[in-house]
Amino acid sequence: MAFLAGPRLLDWASSPPHLQFNKFVLTGYRPASSGSGCLRSLFYLHNELGNIYTHGSVLYHLFMCHQGGSPVYTRLLALDMCGVCLVNTLGALPIIHCTLACRPWLRPAALVAYTMLSGVAGWRALTAPSTSARLRAFGWQAGARLLVFGARGVGLGSGAPGSLPCYLRMDALALLGGLVNVARLPERWGPGRFDYWGNSHQIMHLLSVGSILQLHAGVVPDLLWVAHHACPPD
What we know:
Mean pLDDT: 95
Low-confidence stretches: none
Shape: elongated
Distance between the termini: 59 Å
Number of strands: 0
Order of helices and strands: HHHHHHHH
Helix content: 55-70%
């Protein structure tokens, strides 16, 4: 995957201030690069290579070292947060749709309410000053999903029998990934040892992939259940 000779990499202290967000990753920072230089970094080893290849939206990690500096980085981070918010929003809507399939009077209101809540959460994430604040912003969406899961768990909602455990694993993996990223583990325990591989952000990406797979494993049978199930008469 990394087979080109890259430029001389920087240490944490020499990297631009807007890229000094993890003081436990000590080396491997790319110098400020043009757009083509950022693209070239797909093919040499640096401390964002693992993040690029484990991320569903690669633009943030690929171009964060762009020579445009902090303004470009801020726009890339905002784009990345929009992607996270969209995944959280669009992933939950079919869950709500299926859970309230037999409550047509409540379902539209719940879908609209969750969409509006997601807009607020997305804005709070975009304006958050830190990683932990961004995690708390998305916690509003997680709390709303837990209410939906609880309704299903106590029999107030509907859906395929095996889908709810998938959804619980989905949010558990997402939460674990967020906490690992905020805590900067394991690099906090060994600064410099995880600069290139195995650091918290890469772990979060992998857990996010697992979370999305659990969403898929739950939504597909849910939608099939809705398509073939007749709700009991009122």
